[in-house]
Write a structure and sequence with these properties.
The complex is a heterodimer of chains A (111) and B (113). Chain A has 111 residues and is mostly beta strands. Chain A is built from no helices and eleven strands. In chain B, 0% of the residues lie in helices and 53% in strands. Classes of the chains: A mainly beta (111), B mainly beta (113). Chains A and B meet through strand 4, strand 5 and strand 10 of A and strand 5 and strand 10 of B.
């Protein structure tokens, strides 16, 4: 089992819709969770981090964390074509302290 | 505040050669981590340095090594290059520990022929 798993996609949504990106992790003791966005040919850019169960909102982005289910998600409201990118979920594992990335989900927002 | 800088941005080497990549973290950041990104394996953790000490290491062979200087700048070295080492090498800095948010540099794209 991979430490951090994401559906590679592509996830295709129409402009203006809500995009829902999901991530599961295996280390139950993990405490810190991050979402990065990576445009083709560019380096990852931090979007959000979340440490506590529940929702955290920042503009059009909402991160959701459920530690009991070992599940973290990212919602993008009013999706724009400029949101088309690969979204990377990352988790700091409690046993190693390393930041482990999922394979990423490719999001395509169609005008 | 200037971001993370990496040099060189692009590099072409041949098998068997060695390469050194450099990373300058954001001013005030003392933790530097290195990652390898390939289409097949995604982003994989190489190692993390904090205050000139390697604090964490990924599952890479000993050909991959690194160090950090007193000004927090870091270098990574790959010896005896293999074709499979072709990748984007990313450096990320954070303050003061890896548990804090990490900010990535633009990366060094290495091609091994």
């Amino acid at each position: 089992q991979k430490e951090v798993e994401q559906n590679s996609g592509p996830l295709s949504v129409p402009e203006g819709a809500i995009a829902s990106l999901n991530c599961t992790y295996s280390d139950r003791g993990s405490q810190s969770f991050f979402w990065y966005r990576q445009y083709s040919g560019k380096s990852p850019e931090l979007i959000m981090f979340i440490y506590s169960n529940g929702d955290k909102e920042d503009g059009r982005f909402t991160a959701q964390l459920n530690k009991a289910s070992q599940y973290v998600s990212l919602l993008i409201r009013d999706s724009q074509p400029s949101d088309s990118a690969t979204y990377l979920c990352a988790v700091i594992t409690s046993n190693t302290g390393k930041l482990i990335f999922g394979q990423g989900t490719t999001l395509q927002v169609k005008p | 505040k200037a971001g993370v800088t990496q040099t060189p941005r692009y590099l072409i080497k041949t098998r068997g050669q060695q390469v050194t990549l450099s990373c300058s973290p954001i001013s005030g950041h003392r933790s530097v981590s290195w990652y390898q990104q390939t289409p097949g394996q995604g982003l994989q953790f190489l190692f993390e340095y904090f205050s000139e000490t390697q604090r964490n290491k990924g599952n890479f062979p000993g050909r991959f090594s690194g160090r950090q200087f007193s000004n927090s700048r870091s270098e990574m070295n790959v010896s005896t290059l293999e074709l499979g080492d072709s990748a984007l090498y990313l450096c990320a800095s954070s303050f003061p520990r890896v548990q804090e948010t990490q900010y990535f540099g633009p990366g060094t794209r290495l091609l091994v022929l």
